Amino acid sequence: MIARRLLIVALSMGLGLGVLARPAHADPNYLQEAISETQAAIDAGKQLQAGSFVEHADDAIDYARSAVWQTPVDPIRKGIKYLRKAVKLAKGTSYDKRIAKATEQAELALQQFQSVK
User: Which helix (H) or strand (E) holds 49?
Assistant: First the structure.
């Protein structure tokens, strides 16, 4: 009876360690989606469409946060910071220079995301 319990405990611990020992890498889907949404935000920013820019940038942040959850690397974190700053600049404005600065921040974020690959 005790041997059976020890066997069950040993197997469950071994299975648990096997799950934790997976290699850490970003899910290419999340990172790829973050890249494509960032590119869409940049395109909208170049056309001076602040609302569309903010929407795509917010979606890119969501995907990037999912990617950084799986692989906590600095380029993804920096890209998220750039995108948050871009959203802050573009939200609620139609001023061309602010949208242009927000687009520059999104381009910096895109560079960070692409450097992970």
Answer: none
Taking alpha carbons only, the member of 58, 56, 61, 45 closest to residue 104 is: 45
Contact status, residue 31 vs residue 73, Cβ threshold 8 Å:
no
Q: Which of 99, 75, 72 is nearest to 87 (CA)?
A: 99
Domain assignment of residue 21, yes or no? no
- The model's pTM is 0.74
| Integer Rg of the chain from CA | 20
* pLDDT value for 71: 84
Nearest-CA neighbor of 61 among 46, 45, 73, 78?
78
Which structural domain range is residue 72 located in? 26-116
CATH at residue 33: 1.20.120.660
On average, the pLDDT of the chain sits at 85
